[in-house]
Amino acid sequence: MTEKIFPGEVKAWKVLSDLEPEDVCNRAGVFYDRESASYVLKSFGFDFSISPSKREIKSLSEKGEIFTRKLNYFFTISALSYLVNAKDISLSGRLIKPENIKGGEFFFKGTHVLPLDKVAEKYCSDREGFIAKGKEFNGRILDYGDASIEFLPMPRIPVTLILWLSDEEFPAQADFLFDSTCEIQLPLDILWSIAMMSVLVM
C-alpha cells in the first residue's frame, strides 16, 4: 500500500484517473480488473494492484512488498508514470548504457549515481550468488560478462545487469543497460528511478 505521497504523484494519479482503461492496457501491457476498478501491473514477475480511485498501490504477493514498502519511493512514481506514458512499440533488442541516453549524464551526478559499485563489491567473486539473487526477482539469465540478468521492472522496460568478476588484473565491475526504446517510453527521471530500483534489489 502506498503510504506517503511524493512530488509528482498527485498529478500522475489525476492523469491516470482520466485515461480510458482499454487504452492504458493496450499501451502498457497491463490488465484492468473492472470489479475493483484497478490495474494489475506485473513488475519483476510480481503482480501489483493499482487503484486510481483509491490512489492506492498494493502488492498481490508477499515477496512483492519490498517494492511497496522499502522501495516505495522509486516504485510508485515509476509505476504511475509507466501507466500514463507507455507506448505499444516493439523492443529494439539494442542495449544501451544510461550515459548514451539523451541527458544521460543525469545518472552520474551526486545522489543520482547508480550504486553499481556496491553490486560489484558484493558479488566480486560470487557469480552464483548474483544469479541466485536475480532469480529471486524473476530475472532471466543472459550470456553477457561473467554473469548477467534481465529484469522486467515494467512490461515494456527490460533492464540488464552485467557482472564482471574480479581477477588478478581488474576489480569487479557491474554494468547496467536499457533497451534503446526506453527513451521513447519514459522521461529521463523515471528511467533513473527504474534503474535505481533495479540495482537496489540486488
Describe the structure.
- This protein has 202 residues and is an alpha+beta fold.
- It is built from 8 helices and 9 strands.
- A hairpin with a 4-residue loop joins strand 6 and strand 7.
- The longest helix has 14 residues, at 72-85.
Q: Topology, pairings included?
A:
Layout: H1 9-18, H2 21-28, E1 31-33, E2 38-43, E3 46-51, E4 56-59, H3 65-68, H4 72-85, E5 95-96, H5 116-122, H6 127-136, E6 140-142, E7 147-154, E8 157-164, E9 173-179, H7 182-185, H8 188-200
Antiparallel strand pairs: 1-2, 2-3, 3-4, 5-9, 6-7, 7-8, 8-9
Give the tally of β-strands: 9
Element string (H = helix, E = strand): HHEEEEHHEHHEEEEHH
- What coarse outline follows from CA principal-axis ratios? globular
What spatial order of strands do you see in the largest sheet?
Answer: 5-9-8-7-6
Spatial separation of the terminal alpha carbons: 22 Å
* Proportion of residues in extended strands: 15-25%
Mean pLDDT: 92
Largest sheet properties: 5 strands, antiparallel
Low-confidence stretches: 1-5
Computed CA radius of gyration, to the nearest angstrom: 17 Å
Number of helices: 8
Structural class: alpha+beta
Percentage of helical residues? 25-40%
Feature tags:
202 residues, alpha+beta, 5-stranded antiparallel sheet, 9 strands, globular, disordered N terminus
What's the gist of this structure?
This protein is an alpha+beta fold and 202 residues long. The protein has 8 helices and 9 strands.
